[in-house]
Design goal:
115 residues; alpha+beta; 2 helices
Length: 115
């Protein structure tokens, strides 16, 4: 009877599903600790004095997390350049909900005249 009861308990423990921990957006992004905001940049590498060095750093996106670790807002920056490599338009877009289409909320435009 003892063996039967022990076997029954082991079978029940084996069959009982263990609730898995729910991962947050912060966990899925590989972040640790109380992260509030992540800013990402695009960096061009250039050749200078026969060496490859870090060039201009341009903002790419910003992601804000709430206290539970889920994304509360993402801001994207779209930059357009002319044929000389100077930026002519910066458009900032905001995505408030996951899966929603980003909406433009601010744009900077500059017109450059060359010789």
């Amino acid at each position: 009877m003892r063996k039967f009861c022990a076997s029954l308990v082991l079978c029940l423990l084996w069959l009982t599903p263990i609730p898995s921990q729910v991962k947050t957006d912060k966990d899925r992004d590989g972040l640790v600790g109380p992260v509030k905001c992540v800013e990402a940049y695009l960096i061009d590498f250039v050749s200078r004095d026969n060496r490859i060095v870090e060039g201009e750093r341009r903002p790419w996106y910003t992601t804000n997390y709430n206290t539970e670790g889920n994304i509360s807002e993402t801001q994207l920056i779209n930059i357009e350049y002319d044929s000389h490599g100077n930026w002519t338009r910066k458009t900032r877009l905001k995505q408030s909900e996951k899966g929603s289409q980003p909406q433009a909320y601010h744009a900077e435009l500059r017109v450059i005249t060359y010789y």
